[in-house]
Fold:
Amino acid sequence: MLLFHRVYSKLLLILVCVLFSCNADVSKRIQRENELELIKPYKIDTSALPAIYQYRLDSFIANHSKGNNLSGQFLVAKGNKVYRNSFGKARYLNGADITNQDVFQIASVSKFITALCIVKMIEKKLISANDTVSNILTDFPYPNITIHHLLSHSSGLCEYTHLTDTDWAKDTCIKCNLDGYNTLICCGKPLTFEPGKRYRYCNSNFMVLANIAEKKLNMPFEDIVQKYIATPLGLDSLHVYNVAKRPLASYPVWGMRGDHSYIPDHRLNNISGDKSIFLNVYELFIIYKAFKNNKIVSRKYKKLMLEEHSKVRYNQYYGYGIRKITLDNGETWNYHNGWWHGFRSYFWFNLKDDKCVILLTNRLKGGFINTKAMVELLEE
Structure:
């Protein structure tokens, strides 16, 4: 009888181990399938945009790039019908041509990707839009500012990039998000208005959001963007700039002045949240499609991002990291443009009609391009 109990116990132990092992294998398999399911929707079967639109776009770009006044990449899409191309020089006027695979600094369009990461954290209940910043970053000296105020540019914070112009004028050390944050909280400047009372576009808001994400997840912001955006969507080129890993001069595409001279690395380049994300036009298109199809954040939180949180001016609003405008033809578009040291970026999309217009440039002699005119090229 004793021998029977020993044998029975061993068999039971083996059975339990096998069951646990099977459950673990099933769990891993489900996890792998879920990860693959995340990636599958973004292997988009695209076809060519009709020739009439290609002709319009080529004419538009050619008109702006006369005399080598403009260089970059563009992508325009209606549904899954896509036309993308590159034009101009990656570096000097006599250098290599830009290719469709080259990456560009997307400047303030980075704010949309930062907002996606923050809203993903809200969706996962790691933070709340109503959380005060000082509850997370305990040394933050402005007690009434919430994450919502940062995302919607309604905080009243002063501009950190103006502070660093003087505070870091003779400092050549590599800076990070914490450096920008410390400069802001130590400046002693009062808020320009009571939080939530009005809109004022300010890079400090999204720099602080990057610091919040880093504190809550205990990882650098570049890893957070990789975790929430690049890896799930299978994007190989998307990354946050890190001068220690890859200095600016090593990139194939440089930001250039009007005379085609190189704009060297800047002490603020390594501070992210408000800027400093690199990718190419196709990957930004993939992000748009994933956002539209509720694959990055759910429909509920996509709606939260697109709400009219702050009124900018007549018929223009700011949501969370993205603007909203109603054009004269009645179409509603969401968009964000950006500029940073030679790079200009234009990211526009119309969710209702599934239209997307992206233009990334590394040189423009003059001001911003009239993107409304480019968007109107997609009209019937």
